Amino acid sequence: MRRAFTLIELLVVVSIIALLIAILLPVLGAARDSAKAIQCGSNLKQLGIAQFAYTSDNRGQFTAARHWVMSAFGQGFNPRDPTILDGVLQGTLFPYVNDVTDIYLCPVAADRLTPDTFVPGWQNQDRVARNYVQNWNVGPFIEDPDPGWPREELTIESTKRPSDLVVFSEENTFVVSGLSTRTLNDGYLLGRQAVTGTPNIDCFATFHNSKNDITAGDANAVFADGHVEFVNASEPAWFSWQNPETGVNETISATVMWCTDAIPVQR
Prior knowledge:
267 residues, 3 helices, 11% strand
């Protein structure tokens, strides 16, 4: 005669299964997040390769920060709107990525949408199509909304410290108090709007490797020598640096430091 499970035995089995699930879920979740972060770094690596291919065709000139994912106005859409693909499709770098659109958005960023992500006028209020941004100091001066904004117009040849210069990184899809005053709103990373005394406008993304606080993590970045690594929006802390060309003490943040070739990197 075959013996059936008793109710107590069944409950024990169910409890063990529930316990195993409780143990495995965080591990699986962490593995999934890690895989997404790796994919994000791979995306930026591909964008870096595309950028260097572009420079080979353009006498060492990087793409313009205002045009790498954005076309001119008057195309029937807002080229700065990161919720649509049109800015990607008409960007100057798109032909160099084999017409692949997925590499313009970090899969982790897609999970980090917050109420202040979206601004009035954006076409889609539930998703973003891209969150990668080009360093404002890299590339030629094109359609600058304010000629007073500091920029270096760096090229391959003029870059002195390529291993310390960010070319592409990630921008948050939300405002971070004390670090950035803008949500994701364009295709470039602008550290400041004046030489001195201005707080960050944008900051690197802060949602990688942060357990419970998505404002405390890192961002992937690809540098002018082609390598990819994490950068942090708040480390090192803000510091003062005297510009040898102007003699002015400039207030420097991590975003400003990694996005310019003029300021020695503080490690």
